[in-house]
Amino acid sequence: MTARADILARLRAARATAPGVVPRDYDRAPVVADLIGVFVDRLADYRAGVHRTGSDRLPEVLAGLLPDNGVLVVPPGLPADWLAGRAGPVRRDGTPGPLSVTDLAADGVSVLTGCAVGVARTGTIVLDCAPDQGRRLLTLVPDHHVCVVRATQVTAGLPGALARLADPTRPLTFVSGPSATSDIELTRVEGVHGPRRLDVVVVDDR
Amino acid sequence: MTGTGRITAALPFPVAARRQLADGQLRDNLRRATRTIRDRRARTVAQVPDWEALRAAGTAIKDDVLGRLPELLEQFEAAAGAAGAQVHWARDAAEACAVVTDLVRATGADEVVKVKSMATQEIGLNEALAAAGISAVETDLAELIVQLAGDTPSHILVPAIHYNRRQIRDILAAGLPAADAARLTDDPAVLAEVARYRLRQRFLTARVAVCGANFAVAETGSLVVVESEGNGRMCLTLPETLICVVGVEKVVPTFTDLEVFLQLLPASATGERMNPYTSVWTGVRPGDGPRSVHVVLLDNGRSDTLADRVGRQALRCIRCSACLNVCPVYEQVGGHAYGSTYPGPIGAILSPQLTGPDGGANRTLPYASTLCGACYDVCPVRINIPEVLVHLRQVGVDARRDRPSPERAALRAMSWVMRDRRRYRAALRAARRGAAPLRRVGGRRGGVRRLPWPLSAWTTARDAPLPPGQTFGEWWAGRNPEAHR
Known about the structure:
Chain A: Residues 112-203 form the LUD domain. The structure holds two protein chains of two kinds. Chain A is of the alpha/beta class.
């Protein structure tokens, strides 16, 4: 008997409970009065940098966060007008070829992306590898990640955010603040293996 | 299939616990750490208005899963396979280790990077790989500390919880060049920086990664890893080959179900509203991440556990470790006393069920509890741990009915005495008379530390109370001589 057949047979024999009905009485669409205010507050609580702006001033704000003497990496589908304020070098993944891990791991590299959805209550941004976010390693290996979130992308709670994802089988990364550890005496330390700095730019497009 | 691997206590719990209790530094570290983490959990949970409804949903989803595990596993296998993952099955620890070892060998790599995973700790994968000439590098900071110290984890979530910052400094310094070691302070930020420095190159060049999964989604074939440091993302994204070892009970029916567990788990585990990073991936994504993804579905005693009507609720566990942090026994003895990958209250009910009662000294683990119920209160999937502890004690006693037991003899005698009012009163009088000299010695504490044999078995771990000078019945009769004859 194969391991598969054996395990399935044992599980079939062991089972006694009937499949049950799941009560979904929890709050699937919580109402948050000041959605963006809560989102910003929670992000700041995780020690992410948070910046609010109107769409007209976005290139200016981004230029301020991404110094011209550093290397900026962007995913293939990043809107070109976001970079209107930038004079320094920009490397676009996929043009001409995919960027290597070594490119991304170099000192002083920043990456600029959009996101799929934001979650106010938990201060979470969800990346789903859409063209304005790119491959997973782009937002992982560089030491500095700047993420643009449009106010209309922010949902109150996690259930709403999952429901808004276009395709759950794309690789998903839920990011809540910069990389951190609490392994030493439960003291939270930001910046271990992921980007040590996370800046979130919230664009008021409502 | 009876579970094997690192889930079997070598020593009876009381023996192992006494050893740990002798370490004052350990108890000091544990007391501080468990207090910090449980206070943080309480504060965060208090901010979630629908917490109890989420717990109820999480419990029901897991019960539903246990009711149709075979179908859900087949659905997961089909969906993950369609997305490009290869699914393997393993009956026990040895079989799982063999599957993983063969997969690593096929790549030609002699080193793997690892994401912290209870399943791979459970099956003793690192040791099995080492025996095959493959080195496994733990990349979670706490796992790395434990590995460098030649130690074993003592907590599900914070494996190095038994060390303080000074001890961790010394462990990390031992692996550094002398000049760097001399400059190393015990500031947690500096120590975390050492981990980054040590592992960065390993991540960028590793060809094979091994991970576990917090959840496996049947509907989509997706796997979920919940973490903090980013070492998980590194391992899941950069190497060419990814091997994921997953207990069969980790499956959840739908992607939507994650909306419950991704709220319950971080709050219960680290007391954060949300952990820094959660990765969800489905099979292979061309041009992004590993080119080859393997999933090893592990039984290792889970089907046996599922067969127990009362005990099966232990399979709802999402490994948050909230029960460890609130347990008055764990707080004193730490994780190593339980002798298994799974310590604390959940370990006391999981380890003996996975191995069966004859697994080493696992039979003693259900007694490693005061039955205070704090673990049940905090469990995000409402595992009634005290109920299972009592059930397993009962099963243990039933299995040994044919052997003489002093406890059973004593209880039988007591039952005879208590069945008759006159016998009971006479026994009380006799006990009081016998205790009179002891009361003078016992003094104000009103108890005796050590009774003579055979009653000494009772007083090894507790004081024996002395009978009071007067019973309530006597006191009442003295006040109301008319009403009482």
